[in-house]
Amino acid sequence: MSAKKGDWVQIHRIELKPSERSSNLPQDTQSVPLEVWQKGFATHDAIMGDEIEIETVIGRKAKGELVKVNPEYEHNFGKPVAELLTIGAELRKILGGEENE
């Protein structure tokens, strides 16, 4: 797969090797590299695995290995927490007194 200039892409790079990480970190964090995955618009054509420069939506330039073309957003807020589902109604009840019950 390849990307054309202007495509929405995702890059990956190692920002810090384990030896370059702070000694104040927990040992399990210190022992792995600090990796960056970043999305932006390709500034030139490239094929998967090539080093590519991107421009992020706020105009920053970054370089890294091309790993995805048209990457999707994959984040979520996880499973619902039962205690939090009713907290808004409970708080309104407490703050509003009996007229909102």
Write the layout of secondary structure elements.
Blueprint: E1 2-3, E2 8-16, H1 27-30, E3 34-42, E4 46-47, E5 51-55, E6 61-69, H2 82-85, H3 87-96
Antiparallel strand pairs: 1-4, 2-3, 2-6, 3-5, 5-6
Summarize the model shown:
By secondary structure, the protein is an alpha+beta fold.
Strand content: 35-45%
**Number of E-state strands:** 6
Helix content: 10-25%
Global outline: flat
Count of DSSP H/I helices: 3
Order of helices and strands: EEHEEEEHH
Radius of gyration: 22 Å
* Mean pLDDT over the full residue set: 93
Can you walk me through this structure?
The chain has helices at residues 27-30, 82-85, 87-96; strands at residues 2-3, 8-16, 34-42, 46-47, 51-55, 61-69. With 101 residues, the protein is of the alpha+beta class. Strand 5 and strand 6 form a beta hairpin. The chain is flat. The chain starts with a strand and ends in a 5-residue tail after the last helix. 10% of the residues are buried.
